[in-house]
Structure formats: C-alpha cells, structure tokens
Automatic annotation (TrEMBL):
Protein name per UniProt: 2-oxoglutarate-dependent ethylene/succinate-forming enzyme
SUPFAM superfamilies: Clavaminate synthase-like
Protein family: Belongs to the iron/ascorbate-dependent oxidoreductase family.
Catalytic reactions on record: L-arginine + 2-oxoglutarate + O2 = guanidine + L-glutamate 5-semialdehyde + succinate + CO2; 2-oxoglutarate + O2 + 2 H(+) = ethene + 3 CO2 + H2O
The Fe2OG dioxygenase domain, residue ranges: 190-292
C-alpha cells in the first residue's frame, strides 16, 4: 500500500537510485509565490514523514563540495604527529582531531577519525556564576601543516549555516508559523559545529564491528552532510534501514531532536548510522550541525490543529528542560561522546554523565 511519503516521492525520488529519499530544490524559495509554496509543501511532507532528504539548488557548487572533501583527505593523510598537534584532548572546547575509536555513540566506539570545529571565538571571561557549558566556547585548533584549513573551513561553515537558516525559516512557513518563529533562538548566530570525517574500510571477517557511527539522532535543529561517492549512511524508515545513495552536488539534510521537540513532534528526528566501508575502501564526509545558541530558550510552537493532528513524532512535554537548557545539553552530549576530553577538562562533571 502506498503511504503518503511514497506517493509524494514518486515524482521526486532519484531515478535508478536505491535511496528512497525525497529531493528538494531550495532555489524554489527564490522563485515565484507558486514555486515557494511548492517547495514549502514538499518540505513539510519530507520533514514530517522521513526526516531526511536531499537538498539541491542551495547555491554551493559541486566543485566547492569536492574541494572541501579533498581538504579532508589531505588532513587525514597528514603524518600522525601533525594530526596529534591538534588532538581534541588539548581543547576544553571539544575542537580538533579524534583518532579511530575515540568517539563513542551509545557507549560503543565509532570506527572513524574526525576533525571537529565550531565558531571561532575567544574564551569568554569566567565568573563564579558562569555556567559549565560556557567551556564549549573558545577557539578552534588548526594544524600548522595545512594553513589553508582555517579560512577555507570557517568560510564553508558559515555558508552551510546560512543554508540551514534559510531552510529553518521555510520549515516555519511549512508549519504555518511566521518565518522568524525561531529566530530569537539564533539571534546571536546559531550554534555551529562541523566535522570532517574519514571512515576507514573494515574487514568484516577480522572485525566484529562495522560501526562507522552507531545509530543515533542528531541533537540540534538541522544537519547538512556532504558525502563522497561511497555511502554507508543509512536511515531508519518504515521499510527498515535505507541507504542514502550519494547524489553528487546535493546535501543530505536531516532534522535534529531540538526541532522535533519545538514542533511538538511534527518535524521528525530520524535515527541514522554509518556502516563502515569494506576493507580497501574508505569514505569521507563533512557534517554540519546547526542548533539554537547555547543560552537560548526554545519555544514550543503552537501548530494549527490540522497540522497538530498529523504529527508523527512524540508529543513534546512543555516542561522538558531541553527547551531551556540548550547549552547544558550540548555539553552533556560532548562529555558522553568524548570521555577522554571530559576526564581531562571536566573531571567532576564527567563522573555524573
Ligand atoms: O558521515 C555521515 O554521513 C553522517 C555522520 C553523522 O550522522 C554524524 O556525525 O552525526
Ligand atoms: Fe548524525
């Protein structure tokens, strides 16, 4: 039986691709009123039913995307000593290099190495009443061996951030809210977090794990992923785990838990994972996570009843502390994922998470 997503997808899915995800063209938002409405309706269905989609028409060229993935390849190909110069353990702000198995998802090591960055900021002045999450704010670590990384990646991160803000405003229109309904939560600039990632090939016979990254939902508002021609990214759907086939030039977009919460379960945060490539193959990706600024209070949006009735995700509890403890929750996630950094810089808090 066709359910609404499949009906909707029939006109939009990639011909011949194994992936069943919708493809949405963001440039329609710069078009006529009719085109904008078409985009908003497609976006509403994709975000409600699947929580994952491909985005085209976003203004970034495929060459630029490939340039970023090439930079990732260059970084991970550096001698270990150069990568260790920027190891995350040196950063109380959770920035820098993490080697294979250094990050945990639900307590299990992920078989990937990565470079994490966020906004480039100065360390704010600490007072007795500064919240612990203020420790997340500070400078990135940059490898001296690849001096071009700093400007290229900060510039790229800002471009991706701008795309997610445009998309979030379109999502608000899709929910029949003012476009700026969540703007107060990003007014100082949205929380930005980006990762360059390398997934090495794994010999299934020799290893019991093919956990590139374990099944999880992203915590924030919106995620954009650029993947190379190897996939392995999989999304949980009603039909089971579905592969997100590479679509050159597109970003893969998914909804995070904070947006699911704010929309009372209408916008869906979907479980996803990356299965390691087979031995002899490696996969590179760049993931960008946009969320509310760390000191935000996120509103519970009041949806019109015809939309509220269609929400498929869990209804939100308006008293959920996630609405007002944004920074604390981000810090908790980082402490859980990077136990070594937590022990080195947040010894007391690390014991409690
Ligand atoms: O590498 C990817 O394709 C996705 C990674 C991911 O889901 C994450 O880091 O949250
Ligand atoms: Fe993710």
């Amino acid at each position: 039986m066709l359910h609404s997503t499949q009906e909707f997808l029939s006109g939009n899915a990639i011909p011949g691709a194994s992936s069943a995800l919708p493809v949405l063209d963001l440039s329609l938002m710069d078009g006529t009123a009719v085109e904008q409405q078409a985009f908003i309706q497609q976006l509403r269905l994709a975000a409600r039913d699947v929580g994952f989609f491909y985005l085209t028409g976003h203004g970034q060229t495929i060459q630029k995307q490939q340039q970023i993935l090439a930079l990732a390849r260059q970084f991970f190909a550096l001698p270990l000593a150069d990568k260790q110069q920027v190891q995350m353990i040196h950063s109380p702000h959770f920035r820098g290099y993490t080697g294979l198995g250094g990050e945990l998802t639900r307590g299990q090591p992920d078989i990937r190495e990565q470079f994490d960055m966020m906004r480039e900021e100065a360390v704010p002045a600490q007072t007795d009443i500064s919240p612990a999450w203020q420790g997340l704010i500070g400078p990135n670590q940059w490898p001296t061996a690849l001096p071009q990384m700093k400007t290229e990646l900060l510039d790229w991160q800002q471009s991706l951030s701008d795309i997610t803000v445009k998309l979030m405003r379109a999502l608000m229109l899709a929910l029949e809210q003012p476009a700026d309904a969540l703007d107060a939560t990003i007014k100082a600039g949205p929380y930005q977090h980006m990762k360059l990632i390398r997934y090495p090939g794994v010999d299934a016979k020799a290893s019991s794990s093919k956990q590139g990254v374990g099944a999880h939902k992203d915590p924030g508002y919106l995620t954009l992923v650029v993947q190379d021609d190897q996939s392995g990214l999989e999304v949980e759907t009603e039909q089971g785990w579905v592969a997100v086939a590479p679509l050159p030039g597109a970003f893969v977009v998914n909804i995070g838990e904070l947006l699911e919460l704010a929309s009372n379960g209408y916008l869906k945060a979907t479980l996803h994972r990356v299965v390691s490539p087979n031995s002899g193959i490696e996969r590179y990706s760049c993931a960008f996570f946009m969320a509310a600024q760390l000191d935000a209070t996120v509103p519970l949006l009041q949806l019109p009843s015809h939309l509220a009735d269609e929400a498929k995700g869990p209804a939100s509890d308006p008293n959920n502390p996630l609405f007002y403890q944004v920074g604390q929750n981000v810090l908790k996630g980082r402490l859980r994922s990077h136990r070594d950094v937590a022990a080195a810089h947040y010894a007391e808090l690390a014991k409690a998470v």
